[in-house]
Amino acid sequence: MAMAPSTAPRLPQLLLLLGILAAARAASREAISQGTDACQSQGFCLRSSLRERSAAPVNVTLYYESLCGGCRGFLVRGLFPTWLMVLEILNVTLVPYGNAREHNVSGSWEFECQHGERECALNKVEACVLDLLDPEAAFLTVVCLEEMDEMEKNLKPCLELYAPKVSPEQVLACATGERGTQLMHRNAELTDALQPPHQYVPWVVVNSKPLKDLSELLSLVCQLYEGDPKPDVCSSMPQAPRDVCYK
Prior knowledge:
This protein is an alpha+beta fold. The chain has nine helices and eight strands. The N and C termini lie far apart (55 Å).
């Protein structure tokens, strides 16, 4: 008897492979402080372990909105690969809000998003993911969600992949409650405080300065990192297309 095909959401194979690589890099980084036994006990490590950082990391902040095609493309195909390649020298902050507007209505904050109410809801979901999870798991989970066409349906498999101890119900309770509103208000304040103000999203700030050409992210991170030695990839700089959503 033929078996019915599974209806479970399928994560793209490329994303799974990158997730495995990210986990291996994280294990390698932990092995730096714990010794080579950590690699053996965890079952995997990159052949060449991550170098211990010898200087302050380069800070990259992405101001974005969840349903902007340019934001999704940059996050998945630009920022994520850069993070994987220079994880040890990079500190990434995500601010999901973008071109939204907030209004104080009788003492409560309400939000109007560029791509409608669904985007506001997803912005809150991603803000709660970033609030509830540790930084690496949160970043990977947001990338996983942004890779999907139906983000709401894929919250569960993305969490199972990167943060199995956190349930979708926890994230949704945050997103639909007061905490989600607080996080959105905070992101609105962070976005509105940008100097110079953002002109479009994705808006990327590297060490407090806006990055106008997103294809230069990797090369700029390598340039700004003052430690020695630098990651091997800094000798080869891939380029990426530029795609934005104007205000």
